[in-house]
Structures are given as C-alpha cells and as structure tokens.
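Quick one: structure for this chain?
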Amino acid sequence: MYKLNAQQLRTTQPDPVVAHAVKKNPITIILDNVLDTYNVGSIFRLADAVAAERVILCGQTLTPPNSRIKKASINTWGWVEWQYASTAIEAIAELKIQNSKLKVVAVEQDARSKPFAEVTYEFPIALVVGHESNGVSKEVLDMADTIVELPMWGINRSLNVMVSLGIVLYQIMSNSSLKARP
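Got it. Here's what it folds into:
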C-alpha cells in the first residue's frame, strides 16, 4: 500500500494512477455551504483517512486550489476525488439518480435527529454537513433519509463541523464489514 506521511504529502504531486488504485469505501461527503477553508481542508484529510469515494463542495464552499485548503488538508485534496455542485440539493438529487440505494445522512441538530450511535448505517452512504453557524439547510434536511446528532453534555451546543463528521464517519467505519482495509 502506498502511504505518505505529512511531509511527503505536502511535497508530492498526486499520482492519478496510485490514487485510482486505492480501494475506496462507498462514502460521499457533501459540504452544504461550509465556509471555513480550514474545515474544508480538514474534511479532505478526513475523506482520505476513511477512503471515501468523493467530496462534493456545494454553494458558497470554496474549492481547491486554495492555499488554506491545501495547508489544512496537507495536500490530500489532490488525492481525494472532489467536485462542485451549485447546491447540496442538486448534488443529492444527482447522486440519487446515479444510485437509488444511496442513503443520505445529515449530521445536524434537528427535532427529527437520532443519536448517531443508535443508527444502523448502510453503504452506499452520503453524509451531509453544513454551514458552521446555520447548519445543514432545511431543504437538505427534508431530503435526508436520516438525520443524526451527537450528544452534548456541557454548556456548548455543538461541535466543529469537521469533528462531528469525523465522529460519525468513524462510527460508520467501526461497524462496517465492507470497509477497505489499510
């Protein structure tokens, strides 16, 4: 297996042949107007860590090449397949046309939310995270098959979007027999 450390990732140009050869998990990550480029970069790094098939950047989310995305992602944005869609609604609709079995899971606090650890996740899956202050848009929440949230026991009402996504992704991966092996 081709593995690079942070220094190698920062200084190596992505090799399309090697990137294509990496076994991917049937996971799509959708960013619904995530504005902080450090969150975007960190999500690319997370997508690489779980061998997600792709990241879809939607709406006002900035796209690579961007120096802050590159820095936060330690250049993994070049190794992870990504695309841009004008809205998360458009991205989800297109994904559902491509695969009717796709399950869309929004990570958001909502009256319809279920505790993330109590949900049974199935591949293929698309996980949607939203704007740092406004969250996932109502229209996207209405399209989701499931909405999950993380419990908060302290004074703060929520976690960082990348942290929340990471926790849910690793819950999915820890319970999956279908995942790619390192």
